[in-house]
Amino acid sequence: xxxxxxxxxxxxxxxxxxxxxxxxxxxxxxxxxxxxxxxxxxxxxxxxxxxxxxxxxxxxxxxxxxxxxxxxxxxxxxxxxxxxxxxxxxxxxxxxxxxxxxxxxxxxxxxxxxxxxxxxxxxxxxxxxxxxxxxxxxxxxxxxxxxxxxxxxxxxxxxxxxxxxxxxxxxxxxxxxxxxxxxxxxxxxxxxxxxxxxxxxxxxxxxxxxxxxxxxxxxxxxxxxxxxxxxxxxxxxxxxxxxxxxxxxxxxxxxxxxxxxxxxxxxxxxxxxxxxx
Length: 277
Prior knowledge:
Layout: E1 7-8, E2 14-18, E3 23-27, H1 38-44, E4 49-53, H2 70-83, E5 89-94, H3 96-107, E6 112-118, H4 126-142, H5 148-155, H6 158-163, H7 165-176, H8 180-192, E7 208-213, H9 221-229, E8 235-239, H10 246-249, H11 251-265
Parallel strand pairs: 3-4, 3-5, 5-6, 6-7, 7-8
Antiparallel strand pairs: 1-2, 2-4
Helix pairs in contact: 1-11, 2-3, 4-8
């Protein structure tokens, strides 16, 4: 990725670091890895120290321990920041990574400078929960590739899929090549932990942005608004006409939103105008 060399923590977490300034951590979603953030790394590196890593069971990071909960994924990030001697970071989580970011902010508030939750889940309806539980069952039976085509159809617009077949094929290969146990462990948490410590979300006191796409069927605008309502002074942005993988499909739009929020959160230059809400 843009010439960066991945490194490892003592516990084995694979990560990339680029740029200087306030640290910003990027956490990917289930079945993906740190490579999904290529567009954000390019856009954020001129302004921040950007850290992207592979969650447990993904990419080049080790498998999670049996029975791990959300706190185990939060602990992975804590170990990474300790290794890098980073005292505080602005944490950006996408989809499952948004759950990890929430868990990190709850368990390690002293190390959280700001929080961004992108295209993530909260308070699923019974129908939404039944659907994701069924996808978990299919993944358990058939492996990480079981839902790949359906997932890509949810994640990207038809226009983007048609215009970028090589990239879509590469993402499908990433999904298919996941370690089955690591993938299933994360997917089960993704399917069941949308309300993880929901009653404690009011304790989060750092600047928070909750954002999703107008057309994201699994991480809906309603979810974003309900989640933001639980966190004091959280901002909500719904990007028009965007689907789930908006950081990949529309990196400039997402980067503009992130820069606006992050630069304000760490009291840098004035906010960038033109956010689509």
